């Protein structure tokens, strides 16, 4: 391997060496040498041309979220790079392994306001796990190796490599004998056993224990371990928004989602519990509500691979810095082997579960939160769409769902029954509207034999729907889009209704005829205006050999309930609108 | 809010100062002083940051998230030696010079330049002592001044060195692949 290569060829070979197979991007002046080179490697390195760099970034995220593998996106310098900022920030918030490659102006004009120059490493410093500006081709082999290592290990995250045009063009003999030198980066995977024993002691003495399963369960592949631990201890399990799918919702120990739009019985259980065992969740403020009032009676055990998450929002009694899977394995090993020792815990847990189920029976009937007396006169309550979707998804199986951000996202989390990891893919931390359509493109490429459903609102859909053209160009047939179309930026409208006296400032939203728009993109478009048409439309989407969009024109002012108002305690849930219709 | 003195060892790479400062800026805190220079180990820089912080522990943890940060300590409550240097150019007509010379002697400061109507004084000492000297000398007329910001070191055997990091540089963390 001592042959001469251009920097751009080195970039391609570095990606192939690290197992990259797909990249999403858009070319431009400063990244052209890389595009020139990737043509030679096109058998191993598939390039997907997106319509906007934001789409490329989200597509790479979708690919990464669906598989756990590295997602790669590409943009040119200047606006190409700045358009990647949103997906990079999104990947940072949700710990997605993402590699962003950007072209940069030639090194001799750096800092001189050259055409399409922006300081993208400066801009992305706070929203990347790490980033690089490469000015010499010689540095490319180890920078790519290091960047991919950082993006995919420890708490995963986005890494950006900005490569000047002259570094891509220079010819060198690459040195692939790379020894990573990262003295300041040593993620800790294995739990401290002393802490694990301490935690088990707490758990064994608990009367009302709870498990919170977060994103870390899915990222570390700890689904089996979580299930084994829950079953051996019989502790009820809560799944956060990103923990959805880490624990099957039909499991007798599953109680549902906590937080701002979590179920009443789940939030009450948190407030009552005496030991709270959070594995791989970060106590986001959408989970805790007002943090100082969260789980007031609980001793908290917190497993997180990122030490800076522990104690950040919630006071922790037993901190454990570790990979969730290795931590749970240690917990399983350290649990007393004989059932006798667990008998007391089992007895308490069973009483506790009974209590939780009683609260659930009282508060959870899902349709109740439509909160309309006369639903029969309503043409299409959104809940009917979700009921039909949940039924279709789970009877047919083999699906991934990508949701956007807003009311439709919360309904999807609440109203669809989730069973498997990485089937529920959404923008959680950053809450990026426009995430779903491009992310689904990446998911569909990662999972060609599954049906990928996009559920999005009419607001988010109109932010990035041009990737429908990419989907057609790539010959992708396994994407079906459900637009939950209420003609509003619905979640903001809901807040305006509940807290701002219905002043609908900036929320009413028009759009095109989405079915016709779909047809213009060579998709099948279906419009649904009544509950009676829902099942047939979903059926038709499944039967169509190609991408399909269904425009569900739902009741305009339906709300997501229950709800914890911002910065209130999760004990203070709103169950219905004060404005009766 | 309380003033804290943070000592950090970082890899000497482009952008590392910007990353550290950016993390503090993100929270809207003002840096009172920041001194950066070489440490005892080649390739490792040492920073002393003085800042008013509420939850230093959290910021220290977040600093550790930066790939190039090797070691961070809040030494505010440790027995430390703290030093700062100031250079000041004084308005010093001949008639005032004997008084100024006397004061510099009292404070162990040095006169490093004498011009027709000016003197440049170098003052090194604990930040409090430096401040004290500045207060005393100000009435004579400070035309220019530059303070280095404080640098700090813990007294005694307990160290804050980069050795352990450099030695183990080749034994990077194990990879644990995801399962699903």
Observed structural traits:
heterodimer; A: alpha/beta; Rossmann fold; 3 domains; six-stranded parallel beta sheet; B: alpha+beta; Alpha-Beta Plaits; 2 domains; five-stranded antiparallel beta sheet; four-stranded antiparallel beta sheet; disordered C terminus
CATH superfamily grouping of the largest domain in chain A: Thiamin diphosphate (ThDP)-binding fold, Pyr/PP domains
> Helical residue percent of chain A?
25-40%
Can you tell me the CATH topology of the largest domain in chain A? Answer: Rossmann fold
Q: Which spans of chain A of ≥5 residues are poorly predicted at pLDDT below 50?
A: none
Low-pLDDT residue intervals, each spanning 5 or more residues of chain B:
166-180
What is the residue-averaged pLDDT of chain A? 95
Helix/strand class of chain A: alpha/beta
Amount of helix of chain B: 25-40%
**CATH class group of the largest domain in chain A:** Alpha Beta
How many beta-strand runs of chain B? 9
Treating each run of at least 4 consecutive H or I residues as one helix, how many helices of chain B? 5
CATH class of the largest domain in chain B: Alpha Beta
- CATH-defined fold name of the largest domain in chain B: Alpha-Beta Plaits
Overall geometry of chain A: globular
Structure description:
- The complex is a heterodimer of chains A (581) and B (180).
- With 581 residues, chain A is α/β, with parallel strands linked by helices.
- In chain A, 39% of the residues lie in helices and 16% in strands.
- Chain A has a six-stranded parallel sheet with strand order 3-2-4-5-7-6, sandwiched between helices. In chain A, strands 11-10-9-12-13-14 form a six-stranded parallel sheet, sandwiched between helices. Chain A has a six-stranded parallel sheet with strand order 16-15-17-18-20-19, with helices on both faces.
- Chain A starts with a strand and ends in a 28-residue tail after the last strand.
- The model of chain A has no long low-confidence stretch (mean pLDDT 95).
- With 180 residues, chain B is α+β, with helices and mostly antiparallel strands.
- Chain B has two domains: 2-78 and 158-170, ACT domain (Alpha-Beta Plaits, 2-Layer Sandwich); 82-150, Alpha-Beta Plaits (2-Layer Sandwich).
- Helices cover 26% and strands 38% of the residues of chain B.
- Chain B has helices at 16-26, 56-65, 97-106, 127-137, 163-167; strands at 2-11, 31-38, 44-53, 69-74, 80-91, 110-114, 118-125, 142-147, 151-154.
- In chain B, strands 5, 6, 7, 8 and 9 form a five-stranded antiparallel sheet that branches. Chain B has a four-stranded antiparallel sheet with strand order 2-3-1-4, covered by helices on one side.
- The longest helix of chain B has 11 residues, at 16-26.
- The relative contact order of chain B is 0.20.
- The model of chain B is unreliable at 166-180 (pLDDT under 50).
- The chains are: A alpha/beta (581), B alpha+beta (180).
- The interface between A and B is large, with 40 and 34 residues.
